[in-house]
Write a structure and sequence with these properties.
Length: 378
Amino acid sequence: MAAAAELFPLGVATGRAHCNRLRERDELSGNIREGVHTWIWARRRIGKTSLIEQVVRDVAPDIVTARLDLLVIHDVNAFETRLRAAVEQAAALLPPRKQTSTSKLTRAFSAFKPELSLGAFGLRLKLAAPSRADEGIAEMLLALDDAAGAYGRRVAFVLDEFQQLSELQNGAPRSLEGAVRHAVERARNVTYVFAGSRKHLLGSMFEDEERPLYRLCRKMTLERIGAEDYRRFLLRAGRSRWRRRVPDDAIDRILTLTNRHPHYVNALCGPLWRADAAPTADSVEAMWARLVAEEGGVAAGRVARLAPSQRALLRGIAEAEHGVPHPTSHGFLGALRLPVSTGVRARDALERDDLIQREEDGRWMLVDPAMAAWLRQL
């Protein structure tokens, strides 16, 4: 019997916890194997990292993975340091375990004065830092490509929250994008996966013809998991936990209250699956109320930082539990006492900050279902 934390983790979901995404998994793993560079956009906590980590498992051990998370990188020096560490770790995994010769690595990274050592955790590679942080980035990535080719291996290089590169505090971000492009377009043995959660920043990097990375990669957009996929997953999880079928009305409430947001599905189902009995519609509602109360402090902080017109529009959309078809119409904005021009600007700002989204049927809703529920209680 799988534990609730194993089936519904609040962090990365892989293995038994990974729900569906079969099409996306096949597409991304195929791109990696075939050398098709990819950029992935998804909102935060929608499952982007889980998808990537599951695909990394899918392609292992044939393909070596290098990972670089740019979320905490604030300047060019931090970018170069973290990039060099990712290259060192990936390159050290290229030689076969029983092979004692490291001459291929030494030749590939000769410009970086490589130092190789063998310890309890295997081979370790140390590369010298360039005299300037913004120099040598392309050369380092090309050296990794040469090393992978020398060993007949493929490397998947994952750069998460890649849009942060455009907001570094020093240096010229576009020159860094140019250095990355120089390496990517020449790569033969390294496949690059760029991922991010800020749509307008990431999109401009890859879709603006004035930017260095324009049309360099294939695009993937990660949406919420389908209702039927979640239904099958929850039914299997219920049989694993209680040896019985979870009632349909309980599953309906889970999917409706969370709006199929992966983070909140797991946050809600985790405690429900720790109970002795299978959930009912009433127990789902009660647990959701507790979760919304717990999330209230986070929601209050985000709402407090908004402009007054943005707060008014956000609250107005949240109050419509099933969404608003025309949030910038005269009628809707008039009820909020907002001019149309102000309402349009507020909507655009809220969408840009990933606080609201347009559904497939055209309705506008809050991205965060717990924030929406909390606002409706005010």
